[in-house]
Amino acid sequence: MVALSAAAATVAAPSIFRLGRGDLPGVERHLLALGPADRRKRFLSPADDGAIARYAAGLDPVRATLVGAAGPGGRLVGIAEAHPVVHAPRTVEAAVSVHPYHRREGLGRRLVARALSIAFAEGAEAAVFLFAPENRAVADLARSLGARLAAPGRALLPAGALRAGTAAPDAAADTLELAA
Questions:
Q1: What is the pLDDT of residue 11?
Q2: Rounded Cα distance, 141 and 167, in Å
Q3: CB 166 within 8 A of CB 120
């Protein structure tokens, strides 16, 4: 048992970074690797391969905040997105997906916290989470960041309510680097 624990300790946590246009093929690969139930949770409806390809092709990392986590081989194992909401100025919609092998490690929470920290630093004033009412994982994630459930399947997080210590320490550095 000690040998397994030592080996597990040497596995590095996935690194989290802001995604750019060159990362979009990896985003598409990540989303295509999701099973049918995970696709339904992520997109709130069934999403076949063609729908995911169209979605990924339409992503704009300049307009939306996209962050990812890469595993040891450099492949994306999780992504979080903060997309501007058209009918609600200064509001972003948060979305997250994590590969099944990397769940229950806090990775989704760290990804969303990073994406929202960047979006808030760039002027967003609130984030909304939309999810199937039975998706307890997203409801719990949103609450852990300081969001309040506004209705079944909907949580709202004002920028000032993002719980301290939830974002990765270099989130501000990402924003400053992109502004330069």
A1: 53
A2: 13
A3: no
Residues contacting residue 82 through CB under 8 Å, at least 6 positions apart: 64, 65, 66, 92, 93, 94, 115, 116, 118, 119, 124, 127
Q: Which fold has domain 14-179?
A: Aminopeptidase (3.40.630)
Question: Residue for token digits 């709202």?
Answer: 156
Q: pLDDT band for 12, please (50, 70, 90 cuts).
A: low
pLDDT at 32 over 90: yes
139 and 145 Cβ atoms separated by less than 8 Å: no
The whole-number pLDDT of residue 86 equals 87
Burial class (CB in 10 A: 0-12, 13-18, 19+), 141: buried
121 alpha carbon, distance to own chain's centre: 16
Task: Say which residue the tokens 């994982």 belong to.
Answer: 137
Q: Which parts of the chain are beta strand (E)?
A: 15-18, 65-70, 76-84, 91-98, 126-130, 148-151, 154-158
What average pLDDT does the structure give for the chain? 84
**Residues 55, 80 contacting (CB under 8 angstroms):** no
> Which amino acid appears at position 106 of this protein?
G
